[in-house]
Amino acid sequence: MNFLYNFFIWIIQPGIWFASLFSRKTKLYYEGHKHLTKKIEETFANENSDVIWFHCSSVGEFEQARPLIEWYKGNRPDFKILLTFFSPSGYELRKNYNLADWVFYLPNDTRSNARRVVAAVKPKKLIFTKYDLWNNYIVQARKSGCKLYLVSAIFRREQPYFKWWGGFFRKMLKQFSAIFVQDALSLKNLESIGITQNVTVAGDTRFDRVEKVASLSKDFPVIEAFAKGSFTIVAGSSWLPDDEIIADVMKNFSKVNLIVAPHEIHKGRLEQVQDVYRQYGTIRYSEIEEDALLETVGETAPSFAHGKRVLIIDCIGILSGLYRYADFAYIGGGFGAGIHNTLEAAVYGVPLAFGPKYKKFQEAIDLIDCGGASSVSNASELYQILDNCIKDNELHSLKGRSCRSYVENHLGATHKIVSVIEGL
Prior knowledge:
Layout: H1 2-20, H2 24-32, H3 36-43, E1 50-56, H4 59-75, E2 79-85, H5 88-94, E3 102-105, H6 111-121, E4 123-129, H7 135-143, E5 147-153, H8 167-173, E6 178-181, H9 184-191, E7 199-201, H10 205-216, H11 221-227, E8 231-238, H12 240-250, E9 256-262, H13 267-276, E10 282-284, E11 310-312, H14 319-322, E12 328-331, H15 343-346, E13 352-354, H16 362-369, E14 373-375, H17 379-391, H18 393-408, H19 413-421
Parallel strand pairs: 1-2, 1-4, 2-3, 4-5, 5-6, 6-7, 8-9, 8-12, 9-11, 10-11, 12-13, 13-14
């Protein structure tokens, strides 16, 4: 299996080059890896600081690592922080993250790259987030004396670790000084393959992250003015199937307004969103003039919103703070690869809905179980949920409180993890 793993890592490189000719995302990956190992060696050539290395697959895993990075930056200033990403989505979004001393793609997991990078960085601790594990880096880091940790992990029976042929993958897990899992089921699954030492049920650090974001979220007077006096839906990270369902439902509610933040905001996607909601009147966030900020008095919508029921967010970085203005939140992605971040909305005590592809996300399952969220497969189902929330204030409040309580009951993962790693 080790031979096959290394052969696959080697043989896939020409395929990445070929795919980069047709895919913008793959091209970013390919270009970002040119001379990458050499660049890292040059960067660390004269570096003598203690380094703690965080590796994340993409944006979601970064959000799980972020509370730990913030803790180390605030409480262990003697450490410098290296942050690496596998995905172009994560790297491009966070390549200028100010709490990391260095941000790179992770060089491809060849034996040579792993030896050279670990020898250059000389990390004291290497923290992998959730599931993006790379064998050669794990082996080389362990050989160097580096402590290895896996945080916010989830283990399911369908993963390779639990297959009869999964010994290679189980061996990777046994290299870690400590593994922090999100739930008791993950602990039970690890126990079934003999991994019982140094495993802690710590929860998910994203709860701590969304709580902090909510406590620090700034005001958006334009958004507040738009939402005033109406039942407002915030649709976060929407895709076309999500928009089509919401647009179909809105025809039944003349006093419902929508703030929609598409997952992608390139020109074509924004035009697509405008077209879907055209019948309700749309306006882009970037089109609102500054004087609209002053029009927040009274219960009447400001002049910029007259005849407009749909506000399109055409910038990035503000979605998590917009849910505070929602009466109801719709989380996109459930008709594609999977839903996006539900916790960003749940922290504000907002009832949620999302599409049918949510079962890989434990928090979504839990939010449904506690009554705060609902999964919908079509416009009819979304209509029924919205109609019930609009007509029944008590039901609406109960759903919102259930979401908020769920978040509150799952805070503290960051403290549990650093307590073990740092022996606090």
